[in-house]
Each structure stands twice: as structure tokens, then as C-alpha cells.
Amino acid sequence: xxxxxxxxxxxxxxxxxxxxxxxxxxxxxxxxxxxxxxxxxxxxxxxxxxxxxxxxxxxxxxxxxxxxxxxxxxxxxxxxxxxxxxxxxxxxxxxxxxxxxxxxxxxxxxxxxxxxxxxxxxxxxxxxxxxxxxxxxxxxxxxxxxxxxxxxxxxxxxxxxxxxxxxxxxxxxxxxxxxxxxxxxxxxxxxxxxxxxxxxxxxxxxxxxxxxxxxxxxxxxxxxxxxxxxxxxxxxxxxxxxxxxxxxxxxxxxxxxxxxxxxxxxxxx
Length: 269
Description:
This protein has 269 residues and is an alpha+beta fold. Helix content is 49%, strand content 20%. The protein is built from six helices and nine strands; from the N terminus they run ααααββββββββαβα. Strands 1, 3, 4, 5, 8 and 9 form a six-stranded antiparallel β-sheet that branches. The chain has a three-stranded antiparallel β-sheet with strand order 2-6-7, with no helix packed on it. A hairpin with a 2-residue loop joins strand 6 and strand 7 (187-195). The longest helix has 44 residues, at 73-116. The radius of gyration is 25 Å and the shape is elongated.
């Protein structure tokens, strides 16, 4: 998986190297086209067409019956319940294709989230770096954090024994992607910090867990048997309603691209 994830990182970095200064919706529109080209064959192969056609015919028949006998209250109510049943069946037919497509496209979506899902840390702002140390006990480990030019480590490590966490406060002094180095009991690992006000690769978490790696794939995993389980930077979420704003634009363009692609791929909603 790491090899595939590394390939995706390089692909997204190359893509944003081209479209980074363009309006956000343009980049989302281009990526959505790629997503739809991948998703449409998956849906076509996993959708049970006879079931889909049957539910659509049943739904149409219920609507037609309600319009034809709209002066018979009992028939109208029966048609409404039939419509609800067929609509639920139609959704059920689509659950498997959507689930399989979501699983296959999860990692690319997570990479999109890394570029669009968090607000940038700007010059002069501060954030915190939290490092979770594995093991037991409450004794503070020997730890240090170093930063390149462009980032200042403002505080010594604060040890929160109940969480087994080390916390540093950082200040952004210059834009760019900066590589921090954290050493705990002689074991050193790096963590990227992005200082930018536009699209940039932002990785809030670098972790050793495979499940967490699926959510935060922008950096390689930490060693599973190492002293650190995860390293976290406090980036703010990008504005959005129930989801990051870029996902709503992606859904909109999904419908836009569906119409020219439905005939070549043979997928009819």
C-alpha cells in the first residue's frame, strides 16, 4: 500500500504544481473528471441492471397510478406507499456499487483532503506539535524538536503524563514546506509543516497506524514498533457545511460530468 500511496503523493504534487495558482473550482473540476472516468466503469460492472430497471419501472408505475386515479383517496395513499417502497429498493440497488466505488477511491479522496481540507498556517501564526509516546509509566522521556529556518520552536517540550504526550508551540516565520525533526529517547522522526495561504499539502497527522494512514496519507507511516505512535499539528478545518467545502463542489461537478459520460460507459441513473 505504501508504494501506491507514494505514487499518489507524487501524482498530486505534480498536479498541484500545475494548477496550484488556478481557481480552486478549476482544479476540482479536472480531478472530478478523473474520478468519474474511474468510477463509471466500477459502477457499470457492479450494478445489477435488471434490478435497477425493475425498481425504476415500479416507481414509474406507482407515480402513473397516482396521477391516473388522483380522485380516489385510497388508491392515492396506496400509490404513495408503493412509491416509497420502490424508492427504497432503488437506493438499495445502488448501495453496493457506491460502497465499492467509495472503497476504491477512498485514498485519492484522502489526498484531495490533504490539499484542500485544512486552512493554511500563515506567517506570524502559531500552532502546536503534539507527539504521542508509546509505552507505560509517567516519567518524561528525553525529547527535543528542531526546526529549519522559517519556523521557530517557541517552547521546550511540555510533558502531559496522563496522555503520554509531548507538546511544543511553533511559530511560522516564512512561507513554504518545512521539515521538523523530533527526537525522543534517541529515536528521530520528521514532520512536515506547511506555511501558505493557498492550496498546499497539509498533513495534520503522521502516524504508525494503518487505519489512520488511510485518513492522513500525505506522509509515510511511522515505524510500528517505534517510540512514537503519532505526531499531530493543529491545522484548522477549511470552511464547510457538514463536510469540507471542496467536497460539495466535487459533488456538483460529478453531476455535470455524468451527462457526457453516461452514454460511453452505459450507466443510467
